[in-house]
Design a protein that fits this description.
This protein is about 0% helix and about 55% strand. With about 90 residues, it is mainly β. The N and C termini lie far apart (about 25 Å).
Length: about 90
């Protein structure tokens, strides 16, 4: 699914409803955008991994690569899937 709704979960367990849009899907994972996020974010957002639970049943571990007032850009992979970029999520 290229667009949908999901839940973003941080390491503290805080859950946030989001809309997502995939812009690329490949063997290395998925890249996309998250919408409906709080505006106040700090630089530590780039050091944390998040769990994204999508409405189509896909669960991903994501890292944020860019933040703006309206969206977060992310790169993610399914848990347990080995990818060349797996070092980002360890």
């Amino acid at each position: 699914m290229f667009t949908g709704k999901g839940v973003l979960v941080d390491k503290a367990g805080m859950r946030l409803m989001v809309a997502y849009e995939y812009v690329a899907i490949g063997q290395c994972g998925r890249a996309g955008r998250l919408y409906s996020l709080p505006i106040g974010t700090g630089p530590l957002i780039f050091e944390e991994t998040f769990d994204l639970e999508c409405e189509d049943g896909v669960a991903m571990i994501v890292v944020v690569t860019q933040v703006s007032k309206r969206r977060w850009v992310f790169f993610g992979r399914e848990p347990g899937k080995q990818t060349p970029r797996a070092y980002l999520f360890n």
